## 1
Amino acid sequence: AEETRDAINAANRALPAWRALTAKERANILRRWFNLMMEHQDDLARLMTLEQGKPLAEAKGEISYAASFIEWFAEEGKRIYGDTIPGHQADKRLLVIKQPIGVTAAITPWNFPSAMITRKAGPALAAGCTMVLKPASQTPFSALALAELARRP
């Protein structure tokens, strides 16, 4: 429980700086993560195979699939706009502002250890939220490898 609180507190401390980045800046960071995942696809796949037994060809496919979520949400994050909705009177409008809500959390399964992480982290990070992630206990190294690539400058 203390470890979880520490992780949430760390994500909360990181939130103001991450939230303050423009959507384009966040997209550039996510794009760099995507590029690193593809650059290290063979190593990530080999790690996944050793960790949970997925055949190497399938593991390599999963890394590509996982990276595609990061690429997709990096681009979608640049299109997060608010909405203007007609009101109940002709001279009235409702304005919807889309903004980061705070720290998000995810618990991911063992069977798609990389894809389920990026599918959850991609939209949260693109939207300006920080995230605490608890990977499956059977596949912690896949998660750590992705985190290591994500934190690289």
## 2
Amino acid sequence: MGISQLLEQLSVQPNVAVVCEATGGYEAMMAIALHQQGIRISVVNPRPVRNLAKVLSQIAKTDAIDARLIAKYGEVVQPPATVFASSAERELKTWVTRRLQLIEMASSEKNRRKQSRTD
């Protein structure tokens, strides 16, 4: 199921709340899309969800089991909605990240050139 299909299905549900695990950024596009449509989204740390699995003696791990477990976590814990940065803040973060990458590249290049002169 794609994001647009998910949005379509959720838009007809009253008072829906979505809980998903933070997965290294893979969840970001979906979470932002849900947030922009006014759907409550909570992006949670996977560790407490796994802790709940242990408490429930849930050892097996499949996508279907994980989905039910995350839903149960959302029902029991009722995590707060995730607060999202504005588009300007996200763009600034992208630029800052790129600047840091360029500084690192320049430093590596200086070190490489310095090393080649001493060889």
## 3
Amino acid sequence: MPKLALITGASAGLGVDFAKELASFGHNLILVARRLDRLEALGEELGKKHGVAVHCVSCDLSSEEGCQKLLDVLKEKGLSPDILINNAGYGACGSYDQLSSENQMGMISLNVLALCWLTRQLLPDMLRRRQGYILNIASVAAFQPGPGMAVYFATKAFVLSFSEALHEEVLEHGVHVSCLCPGTTRTEFFSVAGAEHVPQAPGTMESLPVVRSGLNGLWANQAVIVPGWHNFITVQLNRLLPRFVVRKAAKMILLKRFLTQGNLS
């Protein structure tokens, strides 16, 4: 039976592939991002190809006004999503003292506050129906601190912890909550983060396999999804090694990658 899926950050990267994959199974879509032209182009493509209904909402979820705009559109159109893909987010490379407060507070607002807010708005209806699916996008960064990307790594740690807790809270109420923790993926993330010239890390994955892994885990109600053997090993090492070793290793790797590109000083 076709469902209605709301995807944030749907104008690029993982968001686009989530939309394509869900549409290919006949699910109707609500695409949310700032860039309306991209959303409309994607919506037109998927509507023609798969015969699904697509609603496009242009808003900035890092602001209260943007969040309220999305909620108003959902209420106005009588839309109650069965599937929520909390994909919107960004990172920034640089020393904590050098990145602007505006940049870092915006990151927290989008990566954490908007995700929590939207989940809180949609979860009650899912619980009443005793059916729903929530996929929060974190990162392997959630399992370690990130010198040089301190706030980004911290936001992803929050998303992981929040998702695991919520997974347990709703486990017996028919709602699936999963957290997808990909490693480096070929998207425009690094250009947004100001690190477009940074060499790709070992184990870098294409977007589509990550998306498929995430959705398969969500349908199976897997609490934490780590796609790719390289990422899985990285996560297990982070869990097993002493915290100070993980911290020092992260510093060495991140500063080596970003310092050579002039992103940190």
